[in-house]
Amino acid sequence: MLHRIIPIFIPHLGCPHRCVFCQQYRITGSEKPPSPLAVAETIEKGLQQSGASASEPVEVAFYGGSFTSLPVQVMEGYLKAVQPYLATGKVASIRVSTRPDAISVEVLRLLIEHGVTTVELGVQSLDPEVLACAERGYTGRQVWEAAGLIRKHGLALGIQLMIGLPKDTREKDLATTRDVIKMKPLMVRIYPTLVLKGTRLHQMWEQGLYSPLSMEEAVDITADMFIMLEAEGIKVIRMGLQPTSDLNSPDTLLAGPFHPSFGELVASEVFFRQVLTAWRLWSEKPETEDFGVFVNEKDLSKMVGQNRSNRERLKRGLGVNRLRIAGIKSEERDWVGLGRAEADKPLFVLSRQDFYRAWSGQNHI
């Protein structure tokens, strides 16, 4: 079920390590952690905001730090600030993000007692070399143990991954994704690594010891991971960092594949691949030089791509001279259809699930 999120940012709180890439103050735009009173004020403001359905459940989410690494009194102080809203039903649940090595039976019981229903683990990678170079301070085994404990206690498991870390490769990212699938999380976030001012990665970049992914590489790898995860019923709920005024500043972001609509770029890449796959599977193509690509009208912008980039790519990929991309009314989403350019509907349709199976089998990912 979809929730309306009220985010509470607690930058760096509870973090026993300063990872090479991390600068939460600049990522979140929050200069200092909130007090429990400030948490209550943020919830009040969030509840007053318009635009959400009265029936849409509200979730308070603690982001930016390692929540379960906090001293128990601090953790309880934050959780108790939410309790009045849980009691009245104005807030339905609480979500926290934390480190894999900060999960225990005692901690999970405390979270459950206070209404927490989702725990997101900042995993980033399961490759030993990548974890060591990122100075994460935990092992892949600890990730497996934490994920198992969270699911055993009936909590929803979320996992956050990063691509393009030092010593990372596409192969390592896909291997991590395969292992994450086995952990059976409910949701995953994928973030390309960025070089932020004041981080250890900043120093490495200046010294020529680190090179970030290009935008094309980041989109390509993320699209692979998206397809693998979604094919297994695991929702990818975010791709790329949320833009903030600090993150948009050249004084903060020094290098790396940042785009305010990075998720849209990935979605367009997935649609592009889906059309190529449909073209390969379509066995009865009509004899014409004018072809049409059809999608749900609500998916049209993703299919066309930013600056209409997918149109020219598809003409080259399909080997056609003229191509029409059209959106039509449909109850289903994420399908693509192929047919004559002048037609009102496609002759061949490929659903997203059928695409996942065909793409994964062909590309062995």
TrEMBL record:
The question of whether Iron is a record keyword is answered with yes
Please indicate which superkingdom the organism of origin belongs to: Bacteria
Xref: SMART domains: Elp3 (SM00729)
Q: Which GO terms describe its cellular component?
A: cytoplasm
Quote the CDD domains the UniProt record gives: Radical_SAM
List, alphabetically, the InterPro entries matched: ELP3, Elp3/MiaA/NifB-like_rSAM, Radical_SAM_C, rSAM, rSAM_horseshoe, rSAM_sf
- Annotated SUPFAM superfamilies: Radical SAM enzymes
Keyword Iron-sulfur: yes or no?
Answer: yes
Query: Mind telling me which PROSITE patterns this protein's record contains?
Result: RADICAL_SAM
From the Swiss-Prot or TrEMBL record, what is one GO molecular function term?
4 iron, 4 sulfur cluster binding
Single GO biological process annotation from the record? tRNA wobble base 5-methoxycarbonylmethyl-2-thiouridinylation
Q: Where is the Radical SAM core domain?
A: 1-235
One of its Pfam families is: Radical_SAM_C
Q: Which UniProt keywords apply?
A: 4Fe-4S, Iron, Iron-sulfur, Metal-binding, S-adenosyl-L-methionine
Cofactor names: [4Fe-4S] cluster
* Stated name of the protein: Radical SAM domain protein
